[in-house]
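Readers of this paper often ask what the protein records in our data store actually look like. Nothing more is needed to write down the fold, since each code stands for a local backbone conformation. Below, we set out a record of this kind in full and without editing:
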Amino acid sequence: MTEHHCLILLRHGESAWNAADRFAGWVDIPLTDVGRAEAHRSGELIRQAGALPDVVHTSLLRRAIRTADIALDAAGRHWIPVHRSWRLNERHYGDLQGQSREDVRTRFGNARVKIWRRSYDVAPPAIRPERVFSQNLDPRYHRSGIDVPPTESLRDVQIRLLPYWETAIVPDLTCGRTVLIVSHGNALRSLIMHLDRMTVDDIGEVAIPTGTPIRYDLDRTLRPVVPGGVVLEPRSEQSTDMQWESAPAR
């Protein structure tokens, strides 16, 4: 019998800065009412799909933490172990954090903003440590000796995420646990790039919608049985493969 491992990826529900079209990055922004509803629906979809998680991994940001709490409650799995790591945080958007995308486009132009958002190895301008949105003195990082980056490219995100994948998430999968990762657009894009062996050009076209679970069944080598995974939708609308949506990844 073929051995499969079940991995569920979930981008947090809509946050206040998703709704306001502002760059969030590592800024700790809460969910909107829409985001909370998305999180609840995602938990119901996970339950309907029979993909009940045994363990969950989240970032240190409240929009992911709250999404995980709501989704697990809706799925009846509020009691499972939860692990949190800064390595699952969203990409640090540097000096763009807190700014509206419209203002940034006006200032720098659409072409430059697209490079910052969609390229693999080009980071936005660095933020100075004294700026209000730098997180330089945030206790969740400062007290743990974590060096907060002044900015990150997608490549930087992948470099700091993959060690956590290998040391914390892979052991859960290989032990036969169904794993739920609740994280952020760019963190999940970097993991999907690794899982699906995507090229730099391919990943530039991938955007992950908020509050929509994606199921990956992985083989013994932890490669996807269905490339791109399967979006979990209501049973009457169940997808057979991944349908990437044009959703902003912030």
Summary: Residues 237-250 have pLDDT under 50 and may be disordered. Residues 136 and 224 are 37 Å apart (CA to CA).
